[in-house]
Design goal:
- A five-stranded parallel beta sheet has the order 2-3-1-4-8, sandwiched between helices.
- The chain has one domain (2-116, 177-215): Rossmann fold (3-Layer(aba) Sandwich).
- Strand 5 and strand 6 (136-138) form a beta hairpin.
- By secondary structure, the protein is an alpha/beta fold.
- Helix content is 50%, strand content 15%.
- The protein has helices spanning 13-24, 31-40, 44-54, 61-72, 90-103, 117-125, 165-188, 201-215, and strands at 2-7, 28-30, 81-84, 109-114, 127-130, 136-138, 157-158, 192-196.
Amino acid sequence: MNIILLGAPGSGKGTQSKILQEKLSVPQISTGDMLRAARQAHTPLGLKAEKFMNAGRLVPDEVVIGLIEDRLKQPDASAGFILDGFPRTMAQAESLQQMLQTMGKRLDAVVNLEVEEDELLRCLSGRRTCERCGTGFHLEFSPPQNEGICDACGGRLIQREDDREATIRQRLKVYRDQTAPVVDYYTGKGLLEPIPGSGPTREVSQRLVDFLEKAR
C-alpha cells in the first residue's frame, strides 16, 4: 500500500508510521528523520535546513521534494511506502502527484491524525534528546532513570531548539497556515480519513489498522 500519514507536530505520526512499517512490510519515509540526520552530519543540506527548523519554519519545498523523489526510487519502496510528514504544503502535494504519475504509482490512503493543540504542546515540550547518542526521552511518558542523564550512554539530555514552547507554537501556526489546506486537498479527492490520535499508542494503532484493512 502507498500511504500518507498526516498530522500536526507531536500527533504521533512517527510512532504510528514505524508500527505500520512492521505490520505492512513497507518502508516508513520520514522527511523529519532525513533532515535531522543531514543536520547532525553537517551536510550542506543539513546546514541549510537547520536555520529553518530551529525557527519553527518549514524547510523549502524544493529541498524536501528532492529528498522524497530520490527515496521513492529506492528498491525497497517498490511494493509500497508510508510517507510520514510529507506533503506539508500544496506545492509538495502537487509535486508528489506528478511524481507518482511518472512512476506509475497511486496513493491508496491518506490518514490525518487529529490531536488537540494543548496535548500537542505537552507532548513536544517534554521531549529530551541525548546530545551524545541521540536517544530520545520524554519527561512525562518515557523519563530517564536519572534526571538529565541518558540511560543508553550516560550523555547529557538536552531540549532541542525546535521543542521549546515558543518554537512549538510557531510550528503549530505554520502547520495550520500551510499544511491544513493539504487536508482539504486530499479530502476533495476522496482519499482522506480523519482518525483520533489521542489515547494509548496501541489503541491509535488499532484504529489505523482497522481503517487500512478496509481501504485495501
